[in-house]
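Sequence in, structure out.
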Amino acid sequence: MEKGTSVINAGAVDIAMEYRTDLMPDQGLCVQVYGKVEGKDTEILRFDCFDQTPHYHYGPENHNIRLNMDKTTAGNPLGWTMDNIRHRLPSMIRRAGYEELASAVEANPASTMTMDEAEATGRDLSRNGRRTVHHLMPELVEGDKIEVGNLKFGLEYRHLPQINDEGMAIHVLSDVAGQEVELLAFDCFQKGPHYHYGPRNQDVRVYWDVTTSGETLRWTLDQFKAGNLRSMIERAGYPSIAAEVDEKLVQEIMPQIEARSWELVAQNNQASNGQTDTRKTKAQLIQELESLREQVAAL
């Protein structure tokens, strides 16, 4: 891959860094060690300090040995990376296949001040480069945020004319330090359906394979009914909220959430087919929605 745009010279090598957000299910800081090999600027080592699958490469332009970081034992991927660059760089360069460069690093090691600067730069890029998503729910109809214990389910049919897509969205929310935070988001769109673990946190975005999942709104509701909500919230990075989920209450409210979700889909399908009077006022539409909700509840 291309050399990172933040470059710090560390004696015989450069340390280049770039925060990567182009990986939909993952993101994180890429730390590269570059050196001159036969006059060519060459990527010697690469440390991909990603949230989900952190790993590193010996000799990406040589034999490219890729090894995973074990987050359980290594701890923070960036901290682990900088510690190894500080203390094991010559031996890692040798394993990558560049003996002469390893000797040059031993003869001209980077100063402590330089390594401190590199680490501070990396942590700053990691903090400021993080990709997050804040769904503002502009099409949420009043009354369609349903409280279920420590959770709220926001039900919204979204229209995205900028990408020519639309579909039902279910937002799973909770209060974190006095602020409403989106824990999970399920965007059951017609063309690019996907869901998010922790949109405001790690934003792990997974695109459905509709060949295996089937109808995506049905798949989402089935996850709730199967009792998977707690584990999904935990994966999103909110274990304390997951521990307090009232599963019995969730299952009691689920028929209401399911009925309302399909109701919104049906209404918007009618609108797209030209069957809805667009001249109606918002008050009239809300009144009709309430009437439909009562009819569904009576079924």
